[in-house]
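Quick question, first post here. What does this chain look like in 3D?
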Amino acid sequence: MSADSWPPKLKDWVAKCLGQMTDSNRTEAQAELRQVIAEAFSSSTLWTTDWDGVQLKSLMPKPPPVFNNHLKRKTNESPVSNKKAKKNTKHVNSSSTYDSNDQAALNLRAQRFHREHELERTKHLRPNVQTSLKVNHNTSHLFRNMSLSRSGSPSVGGIDEPEADPNVIDWDHFTIVGTSQEVFKDYLRLTSEPKPEQIRPYPVLQKTLMELKKRWREKCSYPWICSQFKSLRQDLTVQRIKNDFTVQVYEIHARMALESTDMVEYNQCQATLKTLYELGIPGKVEEFTAYRILMLLHGRNRSGLSLAVLFKLLAELSLAEMNLFVGQLTSRQKADPAVRHALAVQRAQAMGNYHSLFDLYLTAPNMGAYIMDHFIGRERIRALMVMAKAYKTVSLQFIHDELAFDSLDDTRQFLVDHSAAYFTHPLEPDSKKMLDCKPAFPQLAREFEDKYRKVIIKGAI
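> Answer (accepted):
Ran it through. Tokens below.
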């Protein structure tokens, strides 16, 4: 079944679903999407289903919060209005869980949250905002001279606030400023409310970062460095510190994780950086945008369904997700050399231009090559399959030059590892060896199916 034979309405529906996905529901929505398509294929209803009317449960709007009718009322509410309210509720269906007063309280609370969000956003966008250690603007609720509302944020315009709801967590109440002076601290998962004496304050955290960078240059072991960075990130989180220093911590840890092939920690850092960048906090946005594109190329998983006939459709879904992300890039991002390089890798991979792809691999800026290392083996097998179809024999030297191997020995070992080391004269030196393409091709195709058809990304974002 060719890719062109899929129903156009199905393709439009898939594109619409991808556009509605967010970071919070992407995993659940993609799993449900695959299940719906698999069931339609199994029941032979791909062409008869009204895809415009299909709605994924994971993409449906969440129901409004349910409040009990015994919520507290303001003390100035008159007894007459209470009696009228009680009388009116007799005519309302018993399934109704909140009245207009509750709705008014919800609206006021929503306005308050919106104001807090705007205050935080403008704080980061303001050019003269100081993010020094002496004054931590991210913990403004700690300044006793400021007039604070019940939520812990400065009161604005004297707007009346609804009464505190015990069902809503007051995060300001749990925000602390650490007092620990320890520079190094191993990471431990929090199982209870953090204590100030166990948390390092902002000035100590800056000193910690400087020391960790120094230790890394001295070739310190990655497991210890990783534990220290996770502890540093934890102290930033519990103190609700979000500024350029926070971005710097996550960027440095992400680079170290890439260099140490720790994709779990890298993806966690990348996910947090995406949120921090969206708040307007400056950082190496273009560099990590390029990394994100390369990670999408690495994760082009074609076997999300067990049905082999759906491979082509799943490849289209992955391509649609990539196109959606690329379409959201700004002109500044597209003009950045690292982003241009990542987009060139995408084009070379899509066109099957392995010569251009491996040239880009050798000239990857920043730490892009570390990400490409994770899928370059897959692309080498694909390129060898093309060569094996086009040639009767091909020299080991040619394979070494085209596929960017470090040495002839590495080239030969790659073929051995993939059970494709069929040489016309196996006893000759590597510089004169010739690959026999006819017996090598079926083995290369088998290895591609077994090793590279499905990509598992740990800690994926």
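DSSP finds 18 helices and two strands in the chain.
The CA atoms of residues 215 and 437 lie 49 Å apart.
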